[in-house]
Structures are given as structure tokens and as C-alpha cells.
Amino acid sequence: MSVRKTLIPKINSETGTLKQVVLGLAENFGGTPKIDDCFDPSSKYYVNNNLYPTQKNISKEVNDFHNVLTKYHVEVLRPQNIIGINQVFARDLGFVIEDIFLISNIIKDRQHELPAIADIISRIKQNKVFQIPSDVIIEGGDVIIFKNHILIGYSNSEEVNKFKVARTNSKAVSFIAESFPQKKVIGFELHKSDENKDENTLHLDCCFQPVSTDKAIIAKDAFKNKSDIDYLENLFGKQNLFYLSNSEKNMMNSNIFSISPKIVVSDLRFERLNNWLLEIGLTVEAIKYEEVAKMGGLFRCSTLPLIRN
Hints:
309 residues; L-arginine/glycine Amidinotransferase, Chain A; 3-stranded mixed beta sheet; 9 helices
């Protein structure tokens, strides 16, 4: 009889050397949804234009991503396969800060994804798992760790009630600040739209992400408040930021994934970004992820890191 190994989460950055990660599943995702069942504008756009990805195409892309992770000796865990449910975007189901796994309060449309990682969560010591209060709405794509900071994308209460794409509320910023008092927790308001994919920023990682040890990718147009952009420019230094054009923002160029401070996984289409990453000394594993992107996320969205050293 095999012994179930206890999982010990450890995340203190977005770019530390990745040791263990949950990668989303592309199999049996249920095919093209009805337009009324889409809960993000990107999916709506591609359904309306008969361009929604096929099972074959997204499976190949996720498998290619899996192969890159294992190439660098990352232990890859997978959710339980629930037939007919889109389980590609594991990031939003939970997230790790330091040695604590937090179970996200995701929107009602996605609640049925959570049981797929129940077995993984059960392998973590109970006192290291936080169940977030019901009035705190948060998804993992809105949570980014950088040194002593926890950066959170959020929407105000009016927008949370108005937009299905408003996935994190202001109470989440307060809750994380209270739960991790040793960290500096900063919230950033993002532009939201349920209908126009180019006017919507689903999560913070769709417009911003640290890379290497002191640099970051940013799309200024996605932030509602100039003061938030100023904060990030002061935190990183303008010379350490890669500024995305509006079209690059719409393609979610910021949603790449770091395997270590020196290795990133990116999309083949992101030529200008990939050239910059190479210029600052990173190894770029560029693969095709265009079909997955049609569902509203890319590499970071597909992953839920458990351990980084």
C-alpha cells in the first residue's frame, strides 16, 4: 500500500526555483460552451466567432507546457479529471503565501472546479490550510508576491456587483493584510468589462508580473489609477520594467511563467517580450499557447505553484 506524501507548501516569490506545481487539465473540458455559459469576454468573443479552441489543440498545448516543466525536474501534480468541466486554469482555485495554502472563494460558475484539488489540499497539514471567509472574494490570478510585498488586483464593491469578471473584492486586500501582517499588502484596481475582451483585465497577472529577481512586465492601460502605476514604477524602477503596448496587453503578454529566476516559459507570439527576456539574460522556453489563450488565460493562469526555493 502506497503512503500518501504530505505536501509542505512554500512560496515566497513568483520567480524562485519551482519544485512542485499543480498544472491544469485540458482533457474532457466539455467542448465549446453556449454563449450564456461563458463568464469572461474572451471566451464569448471566440464562441461568437466560431473560433473557440478544440479539445485536441488545447490538450497539445498544455501537454507541451507539461513537458517543459518536467524538463527542468519540476514535480507536476494534476487535478482530478471531472468530465465536462474546464479545468485548465488551476491558478484561481487557491494560492500559497509563505507556508500557507489559501482556498480561493471563486465565482459561483467555477465552484465545481474546487473538488478536483480536494485530494491535493488534504495532503497539506490542516493548520496550514486557510479557508477564506465567505464575504472575501478572491482568485489566485489576482495575487502576486514580490519580496516583502503581496500585490493584489481587486475591484470595488460596485464593480464586484456589476461585473462577472470582477473576481477579487476590497475585503480580500484587508483579509490578506490581516493574515500576513509581516507583509506589505497593496491593492490595485483594474479595468473590467464583461463584454469587451480588450477592455477587460481579468486578473492582476493579465497586466503585471515580476520576472528574474528585480524586473517586471507591466501594462499601464489596465490600471484604473495612475497612483498604482507610480507605486510599481517606484518599487521596481522604470529601468527594470518592460512596458506592454495595448495590443500586447490584449494578448496577455504578462501572463508568462517563471520556472526559476533564470528560466521562463512564454508564448512564441510574444516576440518583442521574448527578445527583452533574452537581453536581460533569461532562458526563454517559447511554445505555442494561442488556443488556451482564447479561453481567457495563459501560462501563469494554468499553474498553481506549491513549492519554490
